[in-house]
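As noted in the main text, all predictions were made from sequence alone. Below is one such record, for Nitroreductase.
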Amino acid sequence: MGYDEVVLGRRSIRGFTPDPVPRELIEEILELAMRAPSSMNTQPWNFHVITGEPLDRIRAGNTERNLAGVPHSREFRTGAEKFTGTHRERQVQVAKQLFGAMGIARDNTEKRHDWVLRGFRQFDAPVCVIVTYDRILDGSDDTPFDCGAVSTALVNAAWSRGLGAVINSQGIMQSPVVREHAGIPDDQVIMKSIALGWPDDTFPANAVVSERKSVSEAATFVGFEP
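Prediction:
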């Protein structure tokens, strides 16, 4: 798979095969991802790569706490969680695309709830990468940007090696569970999780390509000739 296919595919994989991913391949992907730029070369990121029984314990703990109504406890906070206006419309649109692909009707509360729980189960992927940053950098303006850059690079590197990935926040919303079973030390802050594995070509939602606004909507050009 070439670079253009990686970048322009624009797909998040939400259905994975149960096949294991070799550690050596993940190390190769991480090595590629860590060529991402960071502010003044601070490289604030850390990766906790989890599979097998520890990952199953995280899935179970996330699910149990959510079904019990335990409040979410994300460690990295950016302010308001609810989108409004155009941003909310885009959120709703991609949900419609996904539910349509999966054949989940609007009034099917049970299936919709199970879809949400998939995120807390790391989308049933065989591997989960928890992205953290060094707590000493908490409050830095650049650190979240740097971690976002390396996460995007990781996803593109995974695609280039035939793997699928989805960056998500649901998998870390019960941070005490993640911290315990992933063995994350106190001097690190949990930021994001990335579900990783071999794409399941039979999973309908994997064919969904989210719509994108045009360059003319996103970009303002100044000083160019008409």
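The first strand starts at residue 45 and ends at 51. Helices lie at 3-9, 23-33, 52-67, 85-102, 109-120, 142-160, 175-182, 215-218. These features were considered when defining construct boundaries for the mutagenesis experiments described in Section 2.9.
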